[in-house]
Structures are given as structure tokens and as C-alpha cells.
Amino acid sequence: LMVPGILSSLIIELIVSSCSMKSFYSCLMVPRRFENSPKRYAFRIADPMKMKQLHKGIDQLMDEGVAQLFTLKMNGRKIIGCVGALQFEVIQHRLEHEYGAKCKYSPISLHKACWMRSDNQAQLEEFKKRKYQFIAQDKHGNDVFLADSYFALTYAKDNFPDVEFFFTSELQKL
Fold first, then answer.
1. Buried (b) or exposed (e) across 88-114, using 16+ Cβ within 10 A?
2. Residue 7: predicted pLDDT
3. What's the whole-number average pLDDT of the chain?
4. Which of 63, 92, 122, 162 has the highest count of CB atoms within 10 angstroms of its CB?
């Protein structure tokens, strides 16, 4: 999917872009207690003039714990993570009816969000350097690896054995 004004070399590049007339929030299924996350979606705002309402709504919904917000380190774009597909519909409904920001969502391709920790700081920094385009921060400032496939996650585990990956946000006190 190509969008004018957005570099689309990465799957996550469908998020918020200040240089585009169309604005996107990517939504990634992030398990809080469950490891499997079958569906991911990208939100698209119908009226770009409602961007302020969208940001306000997303911030308030994240504060309520409806979903999790990640910010890509590479470009500051935001990703919303949910436990189930129904939460996307709830977010969409609330954004439209409570904040006046009508939006639609469509599928995107991401596998998992993984919090990381390691006693080997050199290896952790090397991992973050190599996977920079897939590193985000949660609202607490913890780094999160957004694996785009099972293979990418397995490759990361095999090639960076000192880095531990966690699939639940309860492990935020890293």
C-alpha cells in the first residue's frame, strides 16, 4: 500500500505522517497475558482536519488502558496495540462518537511486540542498532521490538542469545 508523502519501505510506515494529507495509526495486536496475536490493523482517519481530535482520543483511550501505545524510535510514528480484534472496533466507535474522529482500519503485517532485556549491554545495543527500524518505546519508555514475522523473532533469538524477549507488558520494570 503506497501513500503519497510516506516512505513505504517498511511495513510499519503506515502510521502518522505530518507530511501527508492522509494520516495513519498502525494497530498491532499486543498480548498482555496471551502469547498469540492473530490480527493486526492500521487505522486511517477519514477527515485529516480531525487529527487533533484523533490524537486526543488516542491519548485518553491509552490512559484508560483500552490499548497500548508504542512510538517508533526511527521516526516517532505511533502504533496502537490491542489484545483482540473487538478492541479495535471499540476504539473506532469511541473515536467517532466521543471525539468526532471518524476512522477506518485495515490489516497490516506484524507478528509480535517483544519487550527486551539483557545483562550483556553490548549485545543489546548491537541488536537495537541492527533492528532500529523495528524498535519502538512503550509509554513507560521501555524499548519494544516489533517483530514482523515468526522468522524475524526466531532469528533475533538465535543470533542474540543474551537478549531476553518478553511478550507481556507486565515485565515493564526492566
1. beebbebbbeebebebebeebebbbbb
2. 26
3. 74
4. 92
**Cross-strand bridge partners of residue 64:** none
Q: Which of 2-16, 29-43, 147-161 shows the highest mean pLDDT?
A: 147-161
Only one residue has cell 509509554, namely 139
CA torsion 110-84-22-140 (nearest 10°) is: -80
Find, among 105, 103, 107, the residue nearest to 46 by Cα: 103
Report phi then psi at 104, rounded to 5.
Answer: -125, 160
Instruction: Give the three-state DSSP class for 28.
Output: strand
Over residues 48-68, the pLDDT tens digits come to: 788 888 889 988 988 888 888
Q: Per residue in 28-38, pLDDT tens? A: 544 433 344 43
What span, in angstroms and rounded, lies between the C-alpha atoms of 85 and 120?
Answer: 37
**Cell numbers at 30, concatenated:** 499486543
Runs of H (alpha helix) within the chain? 51-64, 85-99, 121-130, 150-159
End-to-end CA distance of the chain: 36
Bridge-based pairing of strands 78-82 and 24-29 is parallel
